[in-house]
Amino acid sequence: MKTRKLLDKLMTYLDSDARQRKQERDEIKAVLKKLKRREKKLRNRLEEEDDDDKRRALEKEVDIVYAQRKKGVRLLKEE
Amino acid sequence: MVRRIVLATIFAILAYGFWISPDFKTISAGVAVFLFGMLSLEEGFRAFTGGVLEQLLRRTTDRLWKSLVFGVVSTTLMQSSSLVSVITISFLSAGLLDLAAGIGIIFGANLGTTTGAWLVAGLGLKVDIAAYAMPMLVFGVILVFQKAKPLKGAGYILAGLGFLFLGIAFMKDGFEAFKETLDLSQFALPGLVGLLVYTLVGILATVVMQSSHATLVITITALAAGQVTYENALALAIGSNVGTTITAILGALSANVEGKRLAGAHLLFNVTTGLLAIVLIGPFAAAVDAISAGIGIADDDYTLKLAVFHTLFNLVGIAVMLPLLGRLVQALEHLLRAKAKHISEPRHLTDSARDFPDTAVEAVRKETLHIYENSRDVIAAGLYLRPSDLASDMPLDEIVSAPVHGNPPDIQEAYETRVKPLYNAVVAFISQSASGWGQRQMADLHWLRNANRNLVEAIKATKHLQKNLAVYVRSDNPYIRDEYNRLRMQVATVLRALEQARSDDEDADVAILALDGIRAALERGDEAFTDRLYGLIRERRITPQMGTSLMNDTGYAHDIQRDLIAMAQTLFAGPEHELAPAQRKLQLDEDEIAEALDKSRAIIEPEKPSGDAHGA
C-alpha cells in the first residue's frame, strides 16, 4: 500500500496536467478557507447590527459569500 | 473684509453727496447709466463670441500691424479699451493669440480708446445725444427680448450704446447745473503739484469706475462746464490712461501666465506713456496747440484740445514702445514664468521591460495600477471625498455627511494631467511591444486594456455626475442633498472596497470576490430608489426636474461603480495575489448572483414578488 501511494505520488508529479489540477484544487481550498472566515465575520457583524438597511446589505453579502463557497465546493467535487 | 469696508465707505460718501447736492446725484446717475451701458455692450459682444469673433480675431492678428489696427478698430467700435483688453487676455489664455499679437492689440486699444474723447468732445457736447439715446434704448430693449442669439446680442449692443449716450447727457446736465451752485474750479491746482495730484485723481476715479472712458467723459463734460481747468484735465486724462490697466490686471488674476504677461505689458505701456506725458507735459501742450491750430480747432475749444492731447500722447507711447516690443516680450516671459504643471509620468514602462513578454505584461499591469491610483484620486475629489478619509477607518456615512467646501475640482484638467498621459504611454508601449507575444500574454493584455478603458469611462461618468452633484450637495433642500449624498456613499463604498482588495491584509484575496456583492446590488438596482424618488416628487419635496437629474445621475454613479469593479476584478487579480486563477473561478456570473439574491429576497421579504427594479 505504501509503495502504491508512493508510485501515485510519483505519477502525479510526472504528469504536469495532474500537477496543475492539484495546484488549482489547493488554491481553491485556500480561498474557500478564507471565504469561510469572511462569512463568519459577516455573520457576527450581522448579529450586532441594528440598522435595517445595513442588515439587509450584510445579509446580501453573506448570501454572495455563501454562493461563492458553494460554487467552490462544487468545483472541487467535479475535479 | 477690506472690500466690505471700502464698499460701505463709498456708499456712505455717495449717500451724503446725494443728500447735499441734487446735481451730484445727476452726475453720479450719469456715471452709473454710462457704466451700465458698458456692461450691456459687453453682454452684447459676448453673444457674438464662440465663432464670428474668434475667426475675426485669428485672421486680423497674424501680423503686428494688423493687431494694432485690430486694437484701434475694436476699441473704437466697443468704446471700451478695458473690454478689449479683457477679451484679449481671455483669447491669449485660450491660446488663440501669441503674446506679441496680444500686446499689439493692447497698444492699438490704447489709441482706439482716444476716439471716445473725440466722440464726446466733438459730438456729445454739441449735439443733444440724449435724443439719439431714446430710440436706441427702445429698439435695443425690444431686440433683447428676441430669442435668436444674434438679435439679442444686437439688442444689448444697441441698448448699451443708448445707455452710454444717456449717461453722457446726464453727466453734462449735472455738471452744467453744478456750475451754478458750486464752483469746482476753485480747487484747480496749477503747476507740477496740480499735474501729479490730478493724475492721481484720474487713476483713482478710473480704478473705482473700472473705466477710463467714464473718467474721460466726466473730465470732458466738467471741462466744458468750466469746472476743471484745461491743465488739470490733461492730468486727469493721463491718470485715466494709467488707471485703466486695473481692469486688465483684475482680468488677468483668473487668467493663466500668458494673460498675466499681457496685463503686465498693458501696465508697463500705460505707466511708461503716463510718465512720458508727465515729464514732457510742456512740449506736449505746445504740440497740441500747434496741431489744433493746424486742423482748425479754436484756441479756446479745450474739450477738443483734450482729445488731441489724449490721442497724441498715446501715439507717442506706441512710437516709443513698439521698437521695444521684442525685448518687452522677452522680459515678461523671463519675469512671469509658467508654473510647471504637474503632469504624471509613467513609472514602469521602460525600454528594458519591453524585451521579454512577461516583463512587458507586468510593466503594463503595474502602470495600470498607477493609472488606477491617479483615477481613484480624481474620482474621489470629483465627488468631494478625500482619498485619505477613504483609506482610514472613519465610517463612510460620517465622511459623506460632512459639509462640502470649496470649488468643484476641474476633472477634465485632472484627467488631462494625471491620467491621460499615462494612458497614452500604455497604449504606445503595447503597440510597440506586442509583436511575437504568446497567447497568454496577449490575453493578459486584453484584460489590462479593458481595465484602462474602465478607468477612463469611470472618470468620464464622474465628470457628468459632478455637474449636478456640485449644486445639490450644497442645496438647502435636505431631500435632494440626501439623495446625492447617497450616490457619493455608493461610490465611496466601492472605492473603499477596492482599497481593501488591494491592501495586504489577510482577507485581501477574498475582498476581490466581495466585489461580487456590490456588483450584485448594482445589477439588481436599488429597489427602494424608484419608490423613494416618486414619493419625493409626489410629496413635492423635490421638483420633477430634480427627479430627472437624479435619475440620470444615478445612472452615472452606477456606471462609475460598474467600471471600477470590472477594472478591479481584472487588475487586482494579478501576480501579487497568488490565488488569482482560483478567485476568477469562484467569481459568480450574473445568473449565479441572481440566484443567490433571489434566495436572500425570499428569506428577507417572503411576501414581495421579485421583479426588475432598476431605478434609473
Structural key phrases:
heterodimer; A: 79 residues; mainly alpha; 3 helices; rod-shaped; B: 616 residues; elongated; disordered C terminus
Describe the structure.
The complex is a heterodimer of chains A (79) and B (616). Chain A is mostly helical. Chain A has 3 helices and no strands. Chain A has helices spanning 2-14, 16-48, 52-78. The longest helix of chain A has 33 residues, at 16-48. Chain A starts with a helix and ends with a helix. In chain A, 20% of the residues are buried. The model of chain A has no long low-confidence stretch (mean pLDDT 81). By secondary structure, chain B is mostly helical. Helix content of chain B is 77%, strand content 0%. Chain B is built from 28 helices and no strands. Chain B has helices spanning 2-20, 22-47, 52-60, 64-78, 81-93, 99-112, 114-124, 129-144, 149-181, 191-209, 212-224, 230-243, 245-253, 257-279, 281-294, 302-321, 325-335, 357-382, 387-391, 396-401, 411-433, 439-472, 478-502, 508-524, 527-538, 544-571, 580-586, 590-604. The radius of gyration of chain B is 33 Å and the shape is elongated. The relative contact order of chain B is 0.06. The chains are: A mainly alpha (79), B mainly alpha (616).
* C-alpha end-to-end distance of chain A: 24 Å
Record field, number of beta strands of chain A? 0
User: Structural class given helices, strands, pairing of chain B?
Assistant: mainly alpha
How do the SSEs of chain A run, as a string of H and E?
A: HHH
Q: For the CA atoms, what is the radius of gyration of chain A?
A: 19 Å
Mean pLDDT of chain B: 80
Task: Please provide the ordered H/E string of secondary-structure elements of chain B.
Answer: HHHHHHHHHHHHHHHHHHHHHHHHHHHH
**Mean pLDDT score of chain A:** 81
Low-pLDDT sequence parts of chain B: 603-616
Please identify the oligomeric state: heterodimer
